[in-house]
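Colleagues,

Please find the record for the two-part complex below.
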Amino acid sequence: MDYKKLAERLFPGAYPTPEEYERRYPPRDLPAGAEVTRLAPSPTGFIHLGNLFAAIANERVAHRSGGVLYLRIEDTDLKRKVDGAVEAVIRALRYFDITFDEGAEIGGSDLYAPWYQRERAEIYRAFAKRLVEQGRAYPCFCTEEELAALREEQTAKKLVTGYYGAYAKCRSLGEEEIYRNLDAGKPYVLRLRSLGDAEKKIKFRDAVKGEITVTENDQDIVILKSDGIPTYHFAHAIDDHFMRTTLVIRGEEWLASLPIHLELFGALGFKPPRYGHNCSLMKQDGPTRRKLSKRKDPELALEFYRKEGYFPRAVKVYMLTLLNSNFEEWYLKNPEAPLETFPYKVEKMGKSGALFDLDKLNDISKSELARLTAEEMLAFLKGWAEEFGSDAEKAYFVEEEKLLSALSLCMGVGGKKRRKDFVTASQAMKTISYFFAAPVREDEYAVDAPTRRALLDGFLARYDEADDSAAWFAKVKEVAAENGFAAEMRDFKASPENYRGSVADVAEVLRIAVTGRANTPDLWTIMHILGGEETRARVARAKEEA
RNA sequence: GGCCUUGUGGUCAAGCGGUUAAGACGGCGCCCUCUCACGGCGCAAUCCCGGGUUCGAUUCCCGGCAAGGUCACCA
């Protein structure tokens, strides 16, 4: 068979030689040990937690080592393309503090561009032609129906399915038949002529999993689709070679196609990058667990976290605790150190799929928010509210001073201990709502209506907004004593049978009257922020309702 | 089904031949306290199973089992 002639027929004309491409995309000039990593999403516009997970790993490795992180867009499947997706990806990742050094729409160096695979057609074709010349690739005219039938036959015989060995019909097509098909204009794909043997095992060193065994690839996989666009595998080999990627950190689901990639790199004469296959995020589903799924789990989409108002740093901290097992301990010891100074290690990445734990994320969120100043919290809430808040919530920002006081109170600013009342922006806005709107009663009173009336009356008679906290509380105690409630908790605990309740019950009545809730931060401060007039109005209204 | 990966409390996990088997989240209890939150103290809860190797296995080997991934002209 004259492979040269076939190559010329399939890819007429001159293409740059591999050597020319080597010169056009020279090895990067980076210090020893610097890693070049990448993110290579397909432009579906849907970016999820798994993407962020891998993104953080790749970003940390690149930047910790003084290397480069770039963004390549895998748009070889036009069915999946969504407008504006690239911008959405960049924006979503930027929110979580992932920044690229170069790549699609990044504006860094374009030495290794183009970054969109569809713009790289010439390179792929040049190498495809080369493989045909070498007899390592051939046109396959099988139709989808034929392939389906083949699969069915193999399944029935309990054989491994696929296009390989004796089942690779077009592999051994005669020269005339090929040209006859070509002349007839039959559509075809280009397949790799695999030299592998599925019986043979290869030892492979994975950067996260360590020593693993893989089976040689023996599938004549498609490298160019019938529209001339490369498949993921082929584009991956060429792009990661010429973009000079040193380490590919990707999801575990790619492990199965590693043999294909290894063979492809070999056939192309490229040295493969190092690979690290990280575990996927799982979710408990009944008795078993499964990968987080786009359809079933809203918390998979990164957009979910923006909408809920998760503090980006909290999400990042949580991802890091899952990503590197020693991160949590390091962070506990170095709470003030910038996250970038954590010695991230690929080898420390988890080997088994971790269950995504919202409780843990929430706990981290509380702690992260508790570290903010009231001003920082306000800025964070404002950013969230502008995009996701209700009109009523947006109005909170008009009374900025009051908002600041409320936030300071809920965060325990100035106190010896910070409070951790806030988990997310949306939850925080609800938490502080009573400062800005008439209280909605969320908790039930423990004491009956007549008693409530007496208590509220007693309070109103004594209340003076000029009182300091101590004087105010002394009055609350007076009200308690006057109505048969213990003024001192000590006394109540010693002999509860002597009282109708304690000062705690009295405070609760006031608390619900003013805020609608049985649990809030310091009541005196709340009244102080609200002001005397508003406080009186709320107490009076509660009295009327009783 | 074939192939690959992974199995330490409910969750994330440290450990890598000898440990009272760390720590964190969650749960429970106590203390602090006008409630909540914070904080402090404490409790319950783990080495998938079976064989080896060894004086000794959570740690090493083999075999099961279970879970996950993957078997496209999608990435």
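The longest strand of chain A covers residues 201-206.

Comments are welcome before we finalize the supplementary table.
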